[in-house]
Amino acid sequence: MTSAKSTRRPHHWRRDLIELAALFTAVAVADAIANLIGHQPDGPYLLMASAAALVATTAFHTWWARRHSHAPPPAAGTGTGWDPGPAGADAHSEAGEPAETVLWRMRTTVRDTPGALAALCIALARHRIDILTLQTHPLAQGTVDEFLLRAPAALPAQQLTREISAAGGSSTWIERADAHDLVDTPTRVLGLATRTALDAAELPLALRQLLGRCTIHSLPALSITGRATGESAPVEGVLEETVMRLRDPSGGVITVERPYLPFTPTEFARARALVELDARLGPRVPRSEHVLTLPEGNEITVRRADRSDLAAARAMHDRCSEQTLGLRYHGPVGDADRYLDHLLSPRFGRTLAVQTASGRLVGLGHLLWDGDETEVALLVEDDWQRRGIGSELLGRLVALAVEAGCESVYAVTQARNTGMVAAMRALSLPLDYQIEEGTLVITARLAASPVPAPSPARPLSPHEPAEQAPRLPR
Hints:
With 474 residues, the chain is an alpha+beta fold. It folds into three domains: 100-182, ACT domain (Alpha-Beta Plaits); 185-281, no CATH class; 289-445, 3-Layer(aba) Sandwich (Aminopeptidase), CATH 3.40.630.30. 35% of the residues lie in helices and 24% in strands. A five-stranded antiparallel sheet has the order 9-10-11-12-13, sandwiched between helices. Helix 6 (185-198) runs antiparallel to helix 7 (202-211), helix 6 runs parallel beside helix 8 (265-281) and helix 7 packs antiparallel against helix 8 (265-281). The model is unreliable at 1-9, 70-95, 450-459 and 461-474 (pLDDT under 50).
């Protein structure tokens, strides 16, 4: 808006002189006409009729101007103004209530020319689609525009894609969004950076949430047997359309794959910044502890574990029977210690340790990131089995998986391990069973019913699995 002071034109003497001359000219013309008509027999009557007609015309013009100067804009479909037609019907039902809407995440590539983005916005507005957020990803040729849209539920994705293509968009990708996507990008990135700073195990999860639906693999520099794997990446990382490779601060490579949608340089820079943050902060694990009471009255502590617990974990292996280690690792008992360095690394998941009052480690529970899937694995020392420790660990691991946004977790065990089956069933989650040659894979779907975190104050149940065998090595 502009103030009246700024819009008032300055007076000039030439304009006043012209207005005065026009006034005198009008008076002279009116006097000549009056003298000409006034000397006629019906002259006075003609003058009075002309004056009345002039007054009536002036009144009608004033009334018309006041009636239509502030009229509302014409409604869509009335035949005046812009009519979007059936596709652009108003987002309200016939009863006047707002129509149902859905959220979409859409990404499309446009030419880097003036007006290209405006054409897309006009195409969206024609269908009553609201643009909630917009991100631009510059490319060497063109620009990738990423939208969060609120659209009428009756509008199919295929029609929306066709309209975007007609408006100049190419390589269009669209998927349903939810309320979590309403957070703006800077806030979401800062939240992921905070989670990564607090816990090194959060880096793979943060990358997955940052880049959308993708598969992340952590490839170590050394195998479980101690041999070099040859996996490496330059410090600046490598971007190859649908694959990016980043140097893992703990050694090896973090590979991110998203076959359905190429990564942009902007996404690559964000992922590299998260990895650099993790490298600068170094190894770190939250040191929260929960003291629990066993049925016989003994107290144990459940806490996060990392590679600093390697010696204590090996000592626990020495106290476990060959049967327990064989069921847990599905391989030669002598190789069990080799797995610990991998399992205790926060890069491959989260580990919970059970510690007695004397400081001895008697149980380990692992939540392992396995590409798009998540695995749970348990090991409890023989003398501490059947006291509820395994069930407690399993419940806490599943709660961590829910917190991390995992859709499901799976456990691999032997068909004869009835304790593990009972513990999985006690989660009260939908379960899928697959058995092949004595190996049982139990998958719990978490999205159907989130599992709350176990209460640290409750006593443990004596019903729990003795051991559980995951697929190792990985």
